[in-house]
Specification:
The structure is a homodimer. By secondary structure, chain A is α/β, with parallel strands linked by helices. Chain A is about 40% helix and about 15% strand. The longest helix of chain A is centred in the N-terminal third of the chain and has 21 residues. Chain A is globular. Chains A and B meet through helix 4 and helix 5 of A and helix 4 and helix 5 of B.
């Protein structure tokens, strides 16, 4: 297997977001110079994490901004458009226009700048749709049932085409349901943050369906760790699942949150939604072959967030103190 | 199997194009009222074919134009963006912006107007990419290698999502390489038109690769026939291949053209292009189960075009006389 050093300079698109900021921080820890492209600067804890990063403020849709971000970079992490998969069904045209053309523009730039490699964060939770079997490996048929999943799949196909045709060194990571202390429950980011927040504030939660829906939860720290390690092993397949490999139902999460917080949640059970995948768990056999991978189990990950939150005195989310 | 009558009123998007005009004409023959949405009115022979069609002039990207076209329609045929697959690699961002958002906007409209069904012309020649085996059936993995194929695949996925979620009655036809007398060699539409035109004018032709590339050629009349027949059988799978089911190499076409025209072509052999699929032939087993399907073989189809052209005194293409 071929190994390479950490990148000299990484551009993280969406680098102030939930996944992007963790990945940017991890590259900084590994000694890379990091540029972060985002509409707004980081706030709260993210500001601390990204202290030494160069900020490129603006929209990635703006070619000039993107060009600026690419200066001196030898690696790009595309972490745009990850936070709110469910929201993409509100205005599918707008969602499409905001995501895929920007990616294709980036590919056009990379094609003209040999030597910049790409890590693209795709969505393991949505590109497969309702897979014929779980866990789903990378060769499983992709049949997304949400606009979000369709845009991610289209992006993957463009990346494949550009890589084959122009030799762009690209890797597509199909990330499962990432969770972590910086998810914002107010913005609807993630079941775990929403449940913990409800426990903390004494509110009930709404669950669509009967609570048997299976998901593959992985901590944002484990995802960042995988991104950094995978950069270093430059061979292996182009498309890789990144997840825990274990399925948990909504009821499992409910039980763990109740146990950890000591506040069993009141649940408002609602009819299932057509656009919710019934079961998705990622087969991570190939990931295990490429990197050291021992993701934190949910039973440990949830209490970690709870304890982190307890240690903070300020309100949650974007406005956390340094 | 469920059968239904011809549609009362059909809107054909791209209805003055090569495929669209043939389909519109066929629906008129079947007694449907037809509206044709296109940027420009039909010319030459197409004008005759579409004599009784209502013209809705404008861009399908314009929601108001699209709304106007949909008035009173109970069926829509989407035949936009078909003519120049190779061209889509010139500006992939522009290509994307011109195609997929328009389709999604149309789906949003259909969702709000129950009772309008959709036939979408996808591209059997490009959505599969280089399939693992030929002939490729509908369950073959879709791995397009051109921007054109990627936009068609993304469109298919959106149609699937809208159909499942909102009950839109939609059919996706993966058309193989359609050919016919109204293809314009000047605009690069199709190998057969280009070869026949070269024979007619005494020019040579340029062939990329060694001439072994396999394609599934089908006449535009057979395609229009399939579209009309498939409308009437309202069940069967959502995605269907429409092709001859037979593969012919570029050398086969060359030989037939030489034989038919009596002008063996001078060939300028050029290196193969990365974005040309090596072999694509469609498995049309399911199509045969649904409709009466006996496509014209290439050995008959090519002389028919040649004879049609001979019967015309005017220059070829868009400017043909009535």
């Amino acid at each position: 297997m071929n190994h390479r050093l950490s990148p000299r300079r990484v551009l993280v698109l969406g680098g102030t977001g939930f996944l992007g900021s963790e990945i940017a921080g991890r590259f900084i820890e590994q000694g890379s110079s990091v540029a972060v492209l985002a509409r707004h600067g980081p706030t709260g804890i993210k500001r601390k994490k990204l202290r030494t990063a160069d900020l490129v403020l603006g929209a990635a849709e703006d070619e000039e901004v993107l060009e600026r971000g690419l200066e001196d970079a030898d690696h790009v992490v595309h972490a745009l458009g990850c936070p709110l998969p469910a929201g993409s069904n509100g205005d599918p045209v707008d969602d499409l226009l905001q995501t895929v053309p920007t990616l294709v523009r980036l590919l056009e730039m990379l094609r003209r700048r040999p030597g910049i490699s790409l890590t693209f964060l795709s969505s393991g939770g949505t590109v497969y749709g309702n897979p014929v079997k779980v866990p789903a490996d990378e060769s499983t048929r992709c049949d997304p049932i949400t606009a979000y999943g369709i845009t991610k799949l289209a992006a993957e196909k463009y990346i494949g085409m550009y890589s084959d045709r122009y030799g762009i060194d690209a890797r597509i990571l199909r990330i499962s349901n990432a969770y972590g202390p910086l998810q914002s429950p107010e913005r609807g980011q993630g079941l775990i943050a929403a449940f913990l927040d409800a426990a903390r504030s004494g509110h009930g939660v709404r669950i669509f369906g009967d609570g048997t829906a299976l998901r593959d939860y992985v901590t944002v720290e484990d995802v960042a760790n995988a991104v950094v390690q995978l950069y270093r092993c430059s061979d292996g397949p182009r498309v890789l699942n990144v997840g825990s490999g274990t399925g948990h139902s909504v009821r499992d999460v409910l039980a763990i949150v109740g146990h950890v917080t000591g506040h069993p949640l009141h649940v408002d059970w609602l009819p299932e939604r057509l656009f919710d995948v019934k079961a998705i768990v990622l087969d991570v056999t190939t990931l295990h072959q490429l990197i050291a991978w021992s993701p934190v189990p949910l039973e440990e990950g949830i209490p970690r967030i709870w304890n982190t939150w307890q240690s903070w005195s300020a309100p949650l989310g974007e406005d956390l103190p340094l």
